[in-house]
Amino acid sequence: MDLLDVARGPALVFALTVFTLGTLWRLVTVLRLPRMTDLSAPREGAPSDLNAAWTGIWRGLWPRRAFGAAAMGSTINGYVFHFGLALIFLGYAPHIEFIRRITGIGWPALPDSVMYIASGFTIISLLLALWFRLSDPVLRTISNVDDWISWTVVFLPVFTGMAVMSGPSEAILARDDVLFRGPLAVHLLSLELLLIWFPFGKLMHAVWFGFSRAATGIRFSHRGVRI
Amino acid sequence: MNSPVFDRQGDEGDAERVDAAMRSFATDFGVTAALHMESCVRCGLCAEACQFYVTTRDPKYTPVLKLDPFRRAYLREASAFAPLVRALGLVKKPTIGDLQQWQELIYDSCNMCGRCTTVCPMGIDIAELVRNARHGMFKAGLIPERLALMDRTARQWGSPATPAEDLPDILAEAAQEHGVEIPCDLPAADLLFTAAPAELGDNTRALAAAARILHRAGLRWTMHQGGYDASNIGFNNGDVELQERLTRALVDTAVKIGAKTVLLPECGHAYGAARWEAARWYGAALPVRVVHMTEFLDELITSGRIRVSKVGATATFHDPCQIVRRGGLEAAARRVLAALGFELIELKDHGVTGFCCGGGGGVVSNQRAAPLRHKVFELKKQQVEATGAEHFVTSCGQCLITLEMGAKHVQWDRHPESLLELVADHLAD
After folding, report:
1. In this structure, what DSSP letter does residue A44 have?
2. What would the DSSP string read from start to end of B91-155?
3. Residues B27 and A107: beta-carbon distance below 8 Å
4. CA–CA separation, A191 vs A201, rounded Å?
5. Do A224 and B329 touch (CB under 8 A)?
6. What distance lies between CA B304 and its chain's CA centroid?
7. Under an 8 A CB cutoff, do A214 and B123 touch?
C-alpha cells in the first residue's frame, strides 16, 4: 500500500466521515437553538416568510451601487474563484470519474480547454484574494487563523491539481495505471484536508449563507424594508 | 494609540463583571443570532458601509470587528464545538480589559443604524448583534456613564427627561406657550400620544405641532402620566428590564384608557422599540396599533383628514435609520414631502443606504463621542450642500438634535427641519 492507496482508501473515508458528521453536527447545533417568533404586526403587504427568505437570498448576490467600486471588485473576485472551483470540481473528466467510482453518479465533462482557463482564473483570483487580505488594512485587522487555514486548504487542491494534469483527460482516463502516483496522492490528500477543515472553519459559509440571508430577508420584509 | 475610554457602574469585581457579560451573551444566542455569528467570511465590506470607518479610515471601526468579544463568547459558550474550544483553549475568554476596550466600539462608534447589514453578502444583521452585545455590557456595568445616568433616571421616573408627576405642568405650560390644548390623563381616548425626552424639555414645539394636527384631524386623544415617553432608553443601552418596563407602560396605559392606537413621536429608536419589539416584551401580539408620526401624517394626508398647503420649494431629506432602513417608512416620508409641494432632491446616499446622522444608538447623548460624531456630521453636511436644496428635512427628533449640534460645531448656517412641524405649520383649512 503506497501513499495513493492510503489517500484513496482510509484517508478518504476518514475525511468524508469528518466532513459529513462535522457539517451535520454544526448545522443541527445551530438550528436547534431557541427560535424567537416575531409577534409584531407585519407591515401591510409584507410578503410571506418564504418569499421574504428568497428576497433575502437574492438580495445578497450583488452589492448595491452605493457601496462603490471596492465592494464590486471584491464581489467579482469572489464570484470568479467560486465559479472556477465549481467548474473544476464538477466539470473536469477525471474528477467526474472519481465521483462516479464513489457514488455511481456521473455526467458529461467539459472540454479540457475550459478546465485550463478555469484553473488559471481560479488560481489568479485566489492569489488576488490573498493579496487583498494581506495588503488591505481592514482585512488585515479582521483576519484570524481561520482565514489563513481556509485560504490554504482551498488553494492547495487547485495548485496540486494543476501539477498532476499530465495530458488530455481522455488519455489520463484511458490509462490502466496512474502515471504519477505520488503527485496524485498529494492532490487527493489536499482535497481531504479541505474536507476535514470544512466543518470547523468559515468554509461552512457554503451552507450558512442561505440560512443567514433568509433570516435577514424575513426580518426586514416583515417591516416593509426592501433590504 | 490612544488608551481606551470606558466607564464602569457598580462595585462588582472584574471577574463578576466578565461572568455577568458572558451569561448575558449566552442567553442572546438564539438561532438567528447564531446563524449570523457563524456566517461571517471576514470580507470587510461592512467597513465601507460604516460612517465611523468612512470618516476616519481607522480599521478598528470595521463593524464586524465590533463584535469580536461577542464572537468569542459565542464560540466558547454556544457554538457546535464549544466544549472543544474551551477545553483546548482555542478561543480566549474575553477579559475585563477586552470588555472595557470594547465599550468605545459598541457604544461610542456604533449607531446600530444597520447600514452594514445592507452591504453584507452573508446578510448578517450586525446592528442587531451589537444590540445583543450591549445587553451583556449593561449587565457587566460597562456602559458610558452618560447613558447609565439616563438609564438610572428612566428607571426612577419612567423617562430620562422628567418624572411622570411633572407631566401635567409641562403640558400646561407648553399649551399656554404655543396656544394649543394638550390633553393629559383623560380617562378614555382613542389615541395615546407619546413624546421623546427633548419634547418634554427644550423642544415643546414638537408637542404643540402634533397637538394642532391631532385636533385638526378631530381625534379623541390624550397624553398620559402612565406612559408618556416612548424613547425607551433601555433599547439603546442594553437594559432589557427597563426596555420591557417602558414598553409595558405604553401598552398598558393605552389598554387602560381604551385607546386603539399608540402614536409615537418623531423618534427613531422609539419606533424600533415600540413598533417592532414591544410584542416580544408584551409576550403576545399587541392589543393596540403602534404608529410612527411619519406614517400617521402620511395616513392623515392621504385619507384627506387633514389638508396642507404647498410650500413650493426644493428640499432634501435625511432618512432616519430606525424609521427607514430598519423601519420601512421610506415612501411615507416622501409622500408627505410631496403633499407639502416640495421638489425633493435626494442626498447622494438616501433611503435604505442613507448614512446615519451619527447620533443613533445613544451616541447623541454620549458626550465623550462628540468628536467622532462631528466627523460623521461632516459627511452629511457635504451631501446636503451638494443637493443645493432650500430645505433640509428629517423625521426624527434625535437626528434633528444631532444635526443641530453638528451644525453649531462647524458654524454651518443650515438648520434641519422637522417634517411634523412643517406639516403643522402648513395646515390648510
Report:
1. T
2. SPPPPHHHHHHHHIIIIIS-----HHHHH-TT---HHHHHHHHHHHHHHTT-S-HHHHHHHHHHH
3. no
4. 15
5. yes
6. 30
7. yes
- In A89-108, the residues whose Cβ lies within 8 Å of chain B are none
Closest approach of chain A CAs to the CA of B76, in angstroms?
A: 14
The reported pTM is 0.94
Whether A30 contacts chain B with CB within 8 A? yes
Q: For chain B, how many residues are written?
A: 429
Tens of pLDDT, residue by residue, chain B (429 residues): 456 689 999 999 999 999 999 999 988 899 999 999 999 999 999 999 999 999 999 999 999 999 999 999 999 999 999 999 999 999 999 999 999 999 999 999 999 999 999 999 999 999 999 999 999 999 999 999 999 999 999 999 999 999 999 999 999 999 999 999 999 999 999 999 999 999 999 889 999 999 999 999 999 999 999 999 999 999 999 999 999 999 999 999 999 999 999 999 999 999 999 999 999 989 999 999 999 999 999 999 999 999 999 999 999 999 999 999 999 999 999 999 999 999 999 999 999 999 999 999 999 999 999 999 999 999 999 999 999 999 999 999 999 999 999 999 999 999 999 999 999 999 998
Kindly list the residues from chain B whose CB atom is less than 8 angstroms away from the CB atom of residue A25. Answer: 80
CB-nearest partner of A33 from B30, B125, B280: B30
Length of chain A: 227
Between chains, do B62 and A142 touch, taking CB under 8 Å as contact? yes
| Binary contact (B41, A202; C-beta < 8 A) | yes
- Phi and psi angles of residue A25, each rounded to the nearest 5 degrees, phi first: -60, -45
Torsion (CA) B240, B246, B250, B251 in degrees, nearest 10:
30
In angstroms, how far is the first alpha carbon of chain B from the final one? 61
Q: How far apart (Å, rounded) are the C-alpha atoms in residues B238 and B248?
A: 17
Q: DSSP character for B292?
A: E
Sign of CA dihedral B414, B271, B152, B95: negative
Test A68 with B48 for CB contact under 8 angstroms: yes
Q: Cell digits for B395?
A: 423625521
